[in-house]
Structures are given as C-alpha cells and as structure tokens.
Amino acid sequence: MRLSASGVHILTSDRVSLDQQFPALVLAAGRASRMGRAKQLLVMPGRGTLLDNAIAQAGLLSGQVRVVVGSGYPLVRYRCRRQPAGWIYHPGWSQGLSQSLIAGIRALGPRALGVFVLLGDQPLLDPRGLAELARCARAQPGVAWAANYGARVGVPAWVPRALWGEVAALTGDAGAGVVLNRAGARPIDLQGVQQDVDTPQDWLSVKQRLAEQS
C-alpha cells in the first residue's frame, strides 16, 4: 500500500486491486436518434466498431472497464469484438445520459476512489491525453480531472468519489460535465474531444480524418 499526494491510501499489491480503485465507465446506452441507427455498431476500419474503439480507449485508463448499455442490447454486446470487464444493462436508458451515468456508478465496488468516465462516440481521442488523465488521477485521486473544452471542461474525466453524491442528483441529459465544472475540475488538454459522432455528417467527417491519418 502507498499514500497518494492527496493522502489517500492506494493498494499496490497487484494490477487488479489497483484498477478496482480506478475503474472506467463507457457510456453507450443511448438510442442515437440523430444518427438514425445504432452508432455503437458503426465500423471503424481496422478498429472494429465504434464501441470496440471506445473500450480500447478506456483500457488506456484502467484494466477495469465497464460499459453501460441500453438501446440495442444485447445486439450491441454481441457485435463487440473487444469485451470489457463487465456490461451494465440500464433499462431506464431513455431517461437520459444522467441516469446511465448514475447506473454505472452504482454498479462499482466499494474500493473505487472515483471513476473515469468516457463516452462511446469520441473516436479521435489522443492516447497521450488519455495517458495524462490516468497519470493525474492516480497521483491525486481526490481531485477532479477533466478534458479541456476551452471555456469549460468535460469528459473524458476522472470523477472522485466525493462528487458521486452530486452526480446522483443529476436528471435528464445532464452529464458529468455539470458536476465537474461546478467543482472546478482541473483541465487536461486532450485532442479529439470536440469530434463526437452524433449525425451521419459527423461520421463522414471522422472517416475522412481516419483516412488522412492512415
């Protein structure tokens, strides 16, 4: 066991114990009405589905990745090549993003010092920024860390356990960003956060960017 910079005891006996304290949630329960089909199953050349890619991104933060699913389940799960540590089916997914986040947090174990929160539709996140987020959270797990969006912060983010009560009070489509901004989360520069996939036009733009990178 070691003591973090914030005075929190962190287990170091093995990777599994450590990752139980630093779990990650991928939120992928929505219907994607603006896309017109299940965007979790969109295929990224060489990376599997959009959700496969999101699970891989979360894996850069933690070995304990859980995915919150709802609309399209169980097809979404069975089309996924990359399997997380656990799937969390949220039957109330239509109640908005906030309820999916709350359902995910409630499924975490008592050892968690907080949780990394990611969306399932930000395929262009820079791995170096994710690595910095992981490093900062592990060094100071009692501090909120979040991606820098300029005038605000948002996910991907580390939400310390002390803020979970505020998360539990969210409603509708309010996400972790509401709590993180109110708490003065420290920003992490993370390229790719501005490019999510909500519409067919977004998806076309992402595919063009991927083609340029290959």
Can you characterise this structure?
The structure is a single chain. The protein has 214 residues and is an alpha/beta fold. The protein is 33% helix and 20% strand. It is built from eight helices and eleven strands. The strands form three sheets. It has a seven-stranded mixed sheet with strand order 7-6-3-8-10-9-11, sandwiched between helices. Strands 1-2 form a two-stranded antiparallel sheet. The longest helix is centred in the C-terminal third of the chain and has 14 residues, at 200-213.
Largest sheet report = 7 strands, mixed
Low-pLDDT ranges: 1-14
Number of strands: 11
The rounded distance between the terminal residues' Cα atoms is: 43 Å
The number of helical runs is: 8
How much is the average pLDDT?
90
Rg of Cα set: 16 Å
Please state how the strands of the largest beta sheet are arranged side by side: 7-6-3-8-10-9-11
> What letter string, H or E per element, gives the SSE order?
EEHEEEHEHEHEHEEHHEH
Given the C-alpha coordinates, what overall shape results? globular
Percent strand equals 15-25%
Q: From the helix content, strand content and strand pairing, which structural class follows?
A: alpha/beta
Share of residues in helices = 25-40%
